[in-house]
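In this section we walk through a basic example: taking a raw amino acid sequence and producing a predicted 3D structure, encoded as discrete structure tokens. The instruction is simple. Fold the sequence below.
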Amino acid sequence: MGGIFQQLRIKIIFRQRCKKKSLKFRDMKKIFTLSVMLILCTLTFATDFMRIKFKNYGCIEKYEVDIIEEVNLEGSTTAIDLMRIKLKDGNIKIHEMSIIEKVEFEIGEDTSSIGDTTSTDSSVLPLAFSITSDSTAEVSSFHTCHQHQNLDSISIPAEIQIEGKKYNVTSIGSSAFYKCPGLTSINIPEGVTSIGSSAFKGCGSLKSINIPKSVTSIESSAFGGCSNLTSISIPEGVTSIGTSAFLNCRSLTSISIPEGVTSIAHYAFWGCSGLTSISIPEGVTSIGDLAFRECSSLTSIYIPEGVTSIGSSAFYKCSSLTSIYIPEGVTSIGASAFYECDSLTSINIPEGVTSIGAEAFMVCSSLTSISIPEGVTSIGSSTFEDCGSLKSISIPEGLTNIGEHAFRFCRSLKSIDIPESVTSIGNYAFSGCSNLDVTIDNSEDNVEVGRNTFLGCKSVTWLKEKD
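The resulting token sequence is shown next.
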């Protein structure tokens, strides 16, 4: 099907005055929706989006309708004109009807000019494009496909033609394929350099995708919620992977991050429960908050030497993680970084670390020993709480503060020496450590002890007799 098409975003506001026998809202909504769809189907080939809001102002019922439509401009009647005629009714007064925004594009008789789809006629579901420069265009986020249940495969063209002029496709726009329910595979051509935010978010049936070598940027949530995506190859040219880029990709088993990437963004692989291995390149300097949270199949990970910080909850509930290497350059371990990594038996904390966040190793129930480096001055609240297998720990000279609940319920811990540098021990810090003998160097008379700090401990010894 050829012709010039206009993609309209139409907003309609109409009002119905209350009557004794006024229709219920759900009935009115159903009648109105069917009426609008019937009208538009005589003019267009796809209803891309419809949302109806209802508000009640005393005795006035107000309905707001937001529609995205694709309209053939070769006819003289516009969608607005046709709906104005068809919706005149004694009970309904159209208060406002307007085109909010529009994009024009041309479909030639050869439907391959707008993309080659393997199972869906492009005249039924054309791709929409936005012109980004004199020579480039992107697959537009304007077009939604959540109503096209039988679309399962699509190939994006490298070049398109609009009004006789050719444009190279260089990007996939934000939310371009957001929640396309039947999409199982997609081909992205060489020449595309960026994949926009939420471009494929929620494509729950997507199993495979090729990312060409020309791509340098994968933006936030680009593949978030692609729960059936099993593998993906990120090309070497990519330097940026956005926040939540692969959030909840539960079927993803392995991924290799290219050398040009310098940081693992917040939430990047959160909920990738099928991920068993991942390669982090040497150029990475930081691992963001919740980056690998709940990657419950991940068994081991190597953190490269250039990394200086591990974000909060970075490996939260990585329940299969048995070992991890933390390099010497790391200076901080964020709050809850290894929370409930209950298969982790040992971990090295390098000498450069000066800060360990609250709950960093909480409920690491298999952790048997740990050495805290000399540079650490404070142990946060609940840092080692409920580490039931922890048998030994070394507290360095220079440590000044042990937070509340820091070692609570470490029932296998047998002895601990608290140096004279410690001036504050928080509430319940060692409570429930039923096998613990504590020795406190209080020779400087400057130790403040909180409430029930040693409740249930086997013994507490003060080097200097307390007054």
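Looking at the output, two observations stand out. Residues 25-41 form the longest helix (17 residues). Residues 368-467 form a domain with the Leucine-rich repeat, LRR (right-handed beta-alpha superhelix) fold (CATH 3.80.10.10). In the next section we compare this with other chains.
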